[in-house]
Amino acid sequence: MSPRIPKHVAIIMDGNGRWAQRRSHPRIFGHIRGASRIRKIVNEADTLGIRALTLYAFSTENWGRPEEEKSLLWKLLIKFLKKEEGELAKNNVRLRVIGEVDRLSPEVRAVLDPAIERLSGNTGLQLTFAVSYGSRKEILRAAEAFARECAEGKRKPEDLDDQLWGNFLWTGDMGELSDVDLVIRTSGEYRVSNFLLWQSAYAEYIFIEKCWPDFAPEDLRRAVETYSNRDRRFGALTPGPKLSALHQELPA
Ligand code: IPE
Ligand code: IPE
Ligand code: MG
Q1: What's the helix, strand, coil split of the chain in %, to 5?
Q2: Which member of 14, 179, 181, 219 is catalytic?
Q3: Three-class DSSP category at 195
Q4: Residue 238: its pLDDT value, please?
Q5: Which of 81, 100, 158, 225 has minimal Cβ neighbours within 10 Å of its Cβ?
Q6: CATH fold group of domain 8-249
Q7: CA separation (Å) from 175 to 106, 131, 170?
Q8: Cut 0.90: pTM above it
Q9: What are the domain boundaries of the chain?
Q10: pLDDT per residue over 93-112, tens digit each?
Q11: Does the beta carbon of 70 sit less than 6 angstroms from any atom of ligand 1?
């Protein structure tokens, strides 16, 4: 039987700095090596039949890092886009970003925006970079936008339900793919760090000890295999013995 494949996998690509420091290199070495892993992971996700892959590349909190580190991270994003757009196009990959794109520099936007536009008609793997992303910020912006539409008389507070709310989030145009099935975090940290809080409400989590620069296609494959053996109950019960049979075992 073929394993159950998660439709949407989201990865917290963590541990670049520690990977480098453990090898007595400056942190930026880890970012360079980490960025170079992305291509293979995207290809593996596609091969496995994953339909959406979201990569956490830069959080709202990461703005607090030294200028030198941040500017390298933006350079790596630009480099990735310039180098990989052709391959993404060939593989029918659609590209999105979620996050405070308005905080990104004109240099980043000048490469990012046209690449997103050119790949926007693609129907294969839905690849999303979370940049300047923070779930709390996303939720606050959604709340603000919804409140504004209410104040303008376009909506009423009682219109709100899960689906409508989802449309106000940055993942709004992903439709049924916006819910995350599997979150993977590398580097042995067991926390969520403000990532996709709404969208991961019923996600499975897999924490991997390896740092991101060592994360390989086999690790993604193994994580998907582990996922496929998990019992996702969504608050209901796993089909088991009939209730009538259980009743018979209860003391009179
Ligand atoms: C993840 O690696 C990349 C980003 C957050 C941009 P880190 O830079 O967080 O590396 P560690 O966690 O300090 O090792
Ligand atoms: C989360 O990693 C953000 C990204 C991987 C982009 P951090 O390294 O920023 O998170 P904390 O500080 O360990 O929670
Ligand atoms: Mg980190």
Answers
A1: 50, 15, 35
A2: 14
A3: coil
A4: 79
A5: 158
A6: Undecaprenyl pyrophosphate synthetase (3.40.1180)
A7: 29, 20, 11
A8: yes
A9: 8-249
A10: 999 999 999 999 999 999 99
A11: no
